[in-house]
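no rush on this but wanted to send it before i forget. theres a chain ive been looking at and ive put its sequence and its fold in token form underneath. please have a look and point out which stretches look like helix strand or loop to you. thanks a lot i owe you, the record is right below:
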Amino acid sequence: MALQASDFNLNQRYIVALLAFEFGDLFKSNVDWLSNMAECSWDWITCNDQGKVTTLELASENITGTLPPEISGLESLEYLIVGDNSLVGTLPPEIGELKELTELKLYDNMLSGAIPSTIGELTKLDILWLNYNEFSSTLPTELGALRELSDLRIYTNNITGTLPSELGYLTSLTILSLGKNQLGGIIPSEIGDLVSLEKLYIETNGFEGAIPSNIGKLTKLKALHLYENEFTSSLPTELGKIQELNDLRIFSNIITGTLPSELGQLVSLTLLSLSSNQLNGTLSSWMGDLTSLTELYLPSNQFTGSLPTELGNLLDLAILDVSHNQLASSLPTEVGNLSEVTSLRLHDNQFTGSLPDELLSLKGLTDLRISHNQFTGTLPSWVGYLDLSVLWINNNQFTGTFEIDTSGMKDLCVDQNNFTGGLPLEIETDYSCRPFPEEDYICASDSGIKLCIATECYSLEFSYVLRYANGTEENTPCEDSL
């Protein structure tokens, strides 16, 4: 139907036409907007029975330009979805006039400036996605007026300041994602009022102080990401109350103290990452109660003692990383119960004794790192039966010959042991040196035999240099090639 001058929605057509011009040539060339048909028949536009525009769904449509303030004239608009485009400029304060709006998705653009305080006037808003933009300034306190909001995502921007306590009013919120900004200060205690919250992501900011104990009130929480901040003090025991939690990441902070035993109540956990903190004490038997765990990361702390035998209860565990601690004693044979494990990272500790034969049961193991410990004895032949792509056994006290099948390995480090004899034939054959500049070689000696392995041999499949030596200093230039 052609447009008539008397149509009640003439103003609406003007606004939509303005959007078409604002959104750039690439957009205009790909849509049938500005045709002589009524705008309610145009692609990506939905109208109600009265012919008023209720939806603009324009994600990933090569849109450029700005969001004009005139868009506020679409008074019946409920869904404004313009994500994954190239919008620039600011979010106009007139956005607050879209009183019927329930979904506002402007993610993955290049919008900048402050988030306007008028956004607090969108009291029917259920979903607000502003992530992956260049918004700056602080979070407006008016966000606290959005009592119907269930999903708030403003991650990966340049937001500064602190978390406004008014966010505690958002009791319908199930997802709060503010990671990768420049937020700081302490977490307000009002965070505990978000009783519907299922996912809390505030990683990669500058938050400091203690993790508030009120976080234990978030009993519906399934994912908690606090990593890469500056949190201090010890882990709150109240974390143990969040028994639906399956993803807990607090790595790269300044957390001190011991692991609270209350963490053993988190029986739904599938991923626990506490690496790169200042945690100390021993790893306790309650860790064996976390039987849903598939990934356990505890490296770069100050843990002491031995690995608890109860870790053998974690039958779904795929990754165990306790590297860079001060763990000692021999490996418990129960580690052999971890039939699903693919990566076992025990390097840079003080483990002693021989490798238990029970590790042969780890048929899916592809990544074994036990370097920089005090393991002794001969290297068991079963190591060669595993389908390993990574094997680090350097800087131990292994003796005997090295007769492991290394075919298929991409990362092999075996130096700084007490091995005797020569290299396996396949290493000498498959990884022989090609002519390279002197600095591209690392020399190692074994029983008086000079061994030079090029870091960039044409046939070399290792992602790191193969090292096989007894105390020879690394990065020594080679005098001769093989």
User: Anything to note?
Assistant: Residues 10-22 form the longest helix (13 residues). The first strand starts at residue 45 and ends at 47. The CA atoms of residues 240 and 397 lie 41 Å apart.
